[in-house]
Amino acid sequence: MTLDLLPIGQGARIVAVDWPALVPEEARRLRALGMEEGARVAVAHRGILGSSDPIAITIGRMTVAVRRVHAAAMEVEAL
């Protein structure tokens, strides 16, 4: 399953990231925030009024907003 499909509140671990599918600058930013293979994440919120963008992701003690296209590039396994 990809991160964009993870239910709100469900914990997961990133198992793979399709880095070539992302713009290099955006990929660097996500890596700097710790969004890499092995990281434990959860979806905190989805966009306002039922929109799918942005998605608020909890990683460690941070909450990071990412676009759906970024979350779709991350393969996760539910914990």
Report on the architecture of this protein:
- The protein has 79 residues and is of the alpha+beta class.
- It has one domain: Ferrous iron transport protein A (FeoA) (SH3 type barrels, Roll), CATH 2.30.30.90.
- Helix content is 18%, strand content 37%.
- The protein has two helices and five strands; from the N terminus they run βαβββαβ.
- The chain has helices at residues 24-32, 68-72, and strands at 11-17, 40-46, 55-59, 62-66, 74-78.
- Strands 4-3-2-1-5 form a five-stranded antiparallel beta sheet.
- Strand 3 and strand 4 form a beta hairpin.
- It starts with 10 loop residues before the first strand and ends with a strand.
Mean pLDDT across every amino acid position: 92
Biggest sheet features: 5 strands, antiparallel
What fold name goes in the CATH topology slot? SH3 type barrels
The number of distinct β-strands equals 5
- What is the number of helices? 2
How would you classify the helix and strand content by structural class? alpha+beta
Any idea what the CATH superfamily is called? Ferrous iron transport protein A (FeoA)
**Order of secondary-structure elements:** EHEEEHE
Overall geometry comes to globular
- The order of strands across the largest sheet is 4-3-2-1-5
